[in-house]
Amino acid sequence: MSSNGINLYANSSSCSGALIGPRHVLTAAHCVWEDGALLKVRVVPGQNGDGTSLSDIPFGTFWVSHYFLPKGWLNDPAPGNLRYDYAVLVLGEEPYLGWLGFDTSSYSSLKNVLHEATGYPGNFDEVQTFIGCDDSPLAVGTPPHFCFGYQYTQSAQLERVYTNELRSKHDAANGQSGSPIWKFSTQYVKGVLTKGSSSWTKITRIRTGVFDFICSAIAATPTQGIHGCY
Fold first, then answer.
1. Cα(70)–Cα(87) distance, rounded to whole angstroms?
2. Is the pLDDT of residue 143 over 70?
3. Tens digit of pLDDT for each residue in 95-122?
4. Distances (CA, A) of 66 to 10, 42, 148, 172, 226
5. Nearest 5°: phi and psi at 96?
6. 3-class secondary structure for the chain?
7. From the CA atom positions of the chain, what is the Rg in Å?
8. Which of 48, 66, 71, 230 has the fewest CB atoms within 10 Å around its CB?
9. Between vectors from CA 97 to CA 227 and to CA 68, what angle results, nearest 5°?
10. Sign, CA torsion 129/135/137/143
């Protein structure tokens, strides 16, 4: 399992995320903190449709019981604060699915190396302009073709590697914030997709401080005695 839809009382995905433990989800901080308050969200592992039928949510839906956000984001929840745009969510129940690992990586193991971006693009951009998905399962006949509720994965190189940030040419649309940037060969997450632009997709890099934050969140809310850095 690599990615989940994160819904705000809606059928379509508002953000994306990845299970990194039995009931721990890594996502972007801006997906769960808005205007100085937490957003009540639910996580839909492996969503495959718009959520209008049970077959679209094959593993059920799960409400979040605990939220962990870095102080750096709470003090400055600005869209450009990529350094702290990450969060760990703890599900109230365990979905009994697999999860991805996560780790820090050196410059040489990231620079110009293919990584996957897996998430759930929405149908509209920031100014509510419709965005179609040519690869949508619904892309039959006359457009528009809706993409929300369906998981997409794309490979691209990490072309820029900075201390706190990675940059790539992965496609990125609203709804894909929080997507894991992960290496297929190891099944380990290297960063969190946090912002798309016409030039770059920007990714919050898992560095030592982020790694320690995630481990602390897992240790504070262990599942069946299991905790640590997988």
1. 7
2. no
3. 999 999 999 999 999 999 999 999 988 7
4. 20, 12, 26, 27, 17
5. 55, 55
6. CCCEEEECCCCCCCEEEEECCCCEEEECHHHCEECCEECCCEEEECCCCCCCCHHHCCCCCEEEEEEECCHHHHHCCCCCCHHHCCEEEEECCCCCCCCCEECCCCHHHHECCEEEEEECCCCECCCCCECCCCCCCCCCCCCCCCCCCCCEEEEEEEEEECCCEEEECCCCCCCCCCCEEEECCCCEEEEEEEEECCCCEEEEECCHHHHHHHHHHHHHCCECCECCCC
7. 16
8. 71
9. 45
10. positive
Is the separation of the CB atoms in 19 and 100 below 8 Å?
Answer: yes
Amino acid at 144: P
pTM of the model: 0.89
Produce one character per residue of 9-39: b if its CB has 16 or more CB atoms within 10 Å, e if not. Answer: eebbbbbbbbbbbbbbbbbbbbbbbeeeeeb
Higher pLDDT, 120 or 10: 120
* Residues constituting the chain: 230
Residues 166 and 158 sit within 8 Å (Cβ to Cβ): yes
